[in-house]
Amino acid sequence: MTDLGMNRQFVTTDFPDPVEADNVVYDPSMAELRAFSEHLETTTEYGSPSYVSEQRSRSADRTKNAVDDEFDEDDHQLVRDAVEYAHEEEMVCLDRRVGRHPDHTYVCRYYVPTEYARIALAWAKLFEPAREEDGDPDFVTVQVPDWEETAIRVLPEEGVTAVLGSDYTGEAKKSFLRLFMYRVKRAGGLGLHAGSKRVRITDPGAEGANGDLRTVGQLFLGLSATGKSTLTGHGFDLDAPESAEMLQDDVCALLPDGTVAGSEGNGLYVKTIGLDRDEQEAIYDAATHESAVLENVAVDDEGSVDFHDDSLTRNGRAVIAREHLASAGEEIDLSSVDQIFFITRNPLMPPIAKLSPEQAAAAFMLGESIQTSAGDPDRAGEAIRVVGTNPFIVGSEGEEGNRFRDLVSDLDVECYLINTGRVGEESPRDVGVDETVTILREVARGTVEWTDDEVMDLTIPESVPGLSIQEYYVPEYVTDYETAARELREERRRYLEAFEDLRPEIERSVY
User: Fold this and answer.
1) Per-residue confidence at 376, pLDDT binned at 50, 70, 90?
2) Position 378 pLDDT exceeds 70
3) Is the link from the previous residue into 16 a cis peptide, with omega within 30 of 0?
4) Judging by beta carbons within 10 Å of its beta carbon (0-12, 13-18, 19+), is residue 114 exposed, middle or buried?
5) What residues does 355 pair with on adjacent strands?
6) Which residue range(s) make up the domain with 176?
7) Confidence at residue 203, expressed as pLDDT on a 0 to 100 scale
8) What is the phi-psi region of residue 427: left when phi exceeds 0, alpha when psi lies from -120 to 50, beta otherwise?
9) Residue 437 CB contacts under 8 Å (≥ 6 apart), including other chains
C-alpha cells in the first residue's frame, strides 16, 4: 500500500492501481455497472434505470477546498481516510475525460464502492472515455457514500477530491468540473457555469432577398432551474437553413482567444421536475429514452414516470445522452463567442438590457438569481446572489470579475441581462419562454433597436420584431420606480464593495 504519511501532498499514485489492485474493478461496461446496482433499480416504462438516493442535492455547506478555506489536519485526514478506503474496500474505477479542446482536455479517474456503482453508471454517461494517448489522470475523486459524516474536501493543486457521506451523483460530476474550471483559470481563461449555443441565422443586412447566414456564438449564465437549459437547448423556432444548436448545458471555459471550451462530451445532467414535452420536446424525448438514467424521479411500481411529482424532491434529475438530444450539436467547443446573457429573476429588471463591459462584470459579480432545490432545498425560491452564478469557484471571486471584464472587452463580446421571470411588483407582467425566445432570436439576428432610457438608466430595446416590448416597461409596473431603483443600486454597490480584489470601476458601474 502507498505510504499516506501526515506531511506529504497527495498525487494520483496514492490511489490504488486500477489495473493491478485486487479490490478494484476497472472500467466495467455500462451493463456491468447497472448489474452491480440492480438491487437498487426500478426499471421505467422506457426500459431505463431509475434510482433514489439518500442525499438529493449538493452539500455546499459541507464542502471545503484548500485554497479558500482553513484546511486543518482533520480535513487532510478525511482525504487520507478516503484514499485508504479505496485501497481496502471493493471499488469500481473508471477513467473519463473532461473536454475535447487540445489545451484543455483532462483525464478524470473516479472510484466508488461497487455497491454504489449506479453513481458511476450515471457519471460515466456524461463524459467520454479516456484514451491511451490522454496520459495519466489529472484529477481523482473517491466517493464513499456510507461514511458516517458528510464532508467534501478538495485539494485543487493536487487535483484530488474526497466525497464522503453523500450518494448524490451531482457531487461526482461537479468534483471534476470544479477542477476543470480552476485549471483553465490558471491558464489565463475563465471557467463559467454556463450553457453554450451556436446559432446560424439570416443576416438581414446582407445582400440578396433572403440575406446570408451568419454564425452567432452565445453563452447563458444562470443557476439551475432559472431557464439556462431551456434557453440553451431551444431551437429559437428557426426553420432551415437557419438553426440553433446546444453545445454545452452546464460548464464551459472562455479562453483568451475567444474559444469556449466544452466539458461534457457524452451527456447532460438535467433537472426533470415539471418536464413537459410541449415546452421542452428535445429534453423530454432524451429523458424518456432507454439510454437515460433517472435519479430521484417519481416512478411507481409499474415503471410509470411522473416528472410533475415532487414527493421525492424538486431536484429530480436525468442523465441524458447527447446523441438522443435533437437540439445538441456534434461539437462541444464554440469557436468564438459573440453574445453573453446573464439570467435574472429580479422584477425591477427589464426583459433584456444591453451592458457595457464594466456593467457586465458587475452582473457577473452580483450573480442575482433564485435559490433552487439543487443548491438548498430548504431555501428554494428565495432571492440569492452567487458570483458568476457559479457555486464552484476556487480562488478570489473579485479577481474572477476582473478577468471576466478583461476577456469580454478584449474579445468585443456583446453582454446582456435577461429577465426570465416577471417585470414589476404591482400587477407584474410575466416574461414567458416565447417572449424570451423572440428577444434572443432577434438579438442574434441584429434587428433589435436600442435606446438609452433615462428613467431606468439602462440601455433597453426600443423595438423588437414580433414583440410589443413597450408592454414590458418596468416603471409602468412599480408605484415609485425611481426610489426602488435607487435603493437597489445603492444596495448592490454596498454588496460589491465587500470584494477587496474587485476593481473600483466595476463597483461604480452597478446598474
Assistant:
1) low
2) no
3) no
4) middle
5) 415
6) 12-186
7) 80
8) left
9) 231, 234, 236, 237
